[in-house]
Amino acid sequence: MGLPYIWFVRRRGNATVAGLHALAGLRWREFATLVGQAMQQRGLRHGGRDGDDPGGDGRGSRLVMTDGSQRWLLSCKHGLAYHLGDNHVRELAEEMEAAGARHGILLTEGRVRARALASAARHGVEVIDGRRLWPLLRPYLSTELRSQVEAGADRRARLESVVAVLAALLLGVATALWGPALGQSLAGTLAARRKRLPPFRPSPRRSHPRAGASGRLRPAARGCGHRSVPGR
After folding, report:
1. Burial of 66 (0-12, 13-18, 19+ CB in 10 A)
2. pTM for the structure as a whole
3. Nearest to residue 60, comparing CAs of 96, 90, 36, 24?
4. Residues 34-86: pLDDT tens digits?
5. At what angle do helices 28-40 and 130-137 cross, to 10 degrees?
6. Adjacent-strand bridge partners of 106
7. Residue 91 to residues 32, 76, 119, 124, 129: CA-CA distances in angstroms?
8. I need a labelling partner for 185 at 20 to 30 A (CA). Which of 159, 169, 191, 213 fits?
9. Alpha-carbon dihedral angle through residues 6, 11, 14, 20, given to the nearest 10 degrees
10. What is the DSSP annotation of the chain?
């Protein structure tokens, strides 16, 4: 694992994981506020809230939004433990029909099963899982929380970099110390295996008719015995 891979690929993944944990730790109203701000950038605005938890800590609630002419119904499954299936999509589709919403969005910090994606395509529902949700909500996090997430990703990348460098050093030392011995052992093993192989015996070739003095091929004899030639 090279250092560029750690800092440009792994670090992004670590930041996503840390960010999703930070989102999952928010209260429902804080999470719903971030979702509403992100949806406003898509031209949607609040059209009311449906199914909100009175205590403000509901882990699965709905937001009603509008683009000015049509209603949208957002189903927020707040938490990392969610694995959305087609039953969640069908439930939202039924609620969309009851609320008179033409469009629906199903989002979660968790994951989405393949069957849910197929069902969402049939019902006209957009599904947003954790991998898409974090970059969507990240710009609306508080500066303090965003800094904590980035600092955590940096610490993880530094730790993985140290581990990668130490592993490379140990591999180099091991190669320098035991590399020749390992090479000789491998060579001896290959030589012993070659000795155990059966000797090579080429398959017998077919005899071909030989050409006579005139260059023409002599016909092959049809029998093993001597046949007399007339006139001799």
Report:
1. middle
2. 0.64
3. 24
4. 999 999 999 999 876 554 443 344 455 888 999 989 999 999 999 999 999 99
5. 80
6. 75, 127
7. 20, 12, 11, 13, 17
8. 169
9. -160
10. --HHHIIIIIHHHHHHHHHHHHHHTS-HHHHHHHHHHHHHTTT-EEEEEES--TTS--SEEEEEEE-SSSEEEEEEE-STT-EE-HHHHHHHHHHHHHHT-SEEEEEESSEE-HHHHHHHHHHTEEEE-HHHHHHHHGGGS-HHHHHHHHHHHHHHHHHHHHHHHHHHHHHHHHHHHHHHHHHHHHHHHHHHHHHHSPPP-PPPPPPPPPB-TTSPBPPPPS-SS--PPTT-
Distance CA 141, CA 22 (A): 10
Residue with tokens 């929380």: 145
At which residue do the structure tokens 């017998």 appear?
204
